[in-house]
Amino acid sequence: MKRHAIFTSALAGAALFMVSVPSAAKAPASWDGLVQVKSKKLDLVYLMPGADFRGYSKVMIDPTEIAFEKNWRRNYNNSATGLGGRISEDELAKMINEAVPAATDLFTSAWQKGGYAVVMQPGPDVLRVKTGVVNIRVNAPDRNMAARTRSFSSEAGSATLFIEARDSTTGALLGRAVDQQIVGDNGALWRTSVSNRGDFRDVVQTWANQSVRGMAELKALSPIHQ
Fold it and tell me: 182 by DSSP, 3-state: which?
């Protein structure tokens, strides 16, 4: 699956994190005290020097933040044919409201399958995990129109992962990672709401699995050296 090399304000509109994601091409060496480390799986990974992940056997998982690319609805509507092809604010809100629990469930299930207890209260052995799927762009959303229409696109769209790990009792920031992916990069296909959901779900599932595997790697590397 192809990757985007450049980020453009990946968390614009993502109110939960209130941070600005650096460009992958010009990523700074440090970010809020975290130091950049190389990763073969994710575009950007930053860790706190001295952080020790070995004591965490449980996780608190915040609801996944969902945010579409800034002006995506406006830009799509400007290119849509007829009023019936446009996306309303209510429809966009519904997309987000449905995506939040769906994405959260994927991350929760991945951590549980990885052997971690998912809990609701902080503790000394509890890692707090915040996730976001942001800068979402859907190239050809399936529209419920009276006329028989078909949406074609070589890709379903794109999205950016943001994940942040903190100690649940102190709130100490331990690490952040960012990754952007092309979604449904499988040639010129007829796009439907079902295929779009499946393509985006597959990408989020991959990110969820990577986050759990990444935790195992962090434990092996702990304490983290600069």
Answer: strand
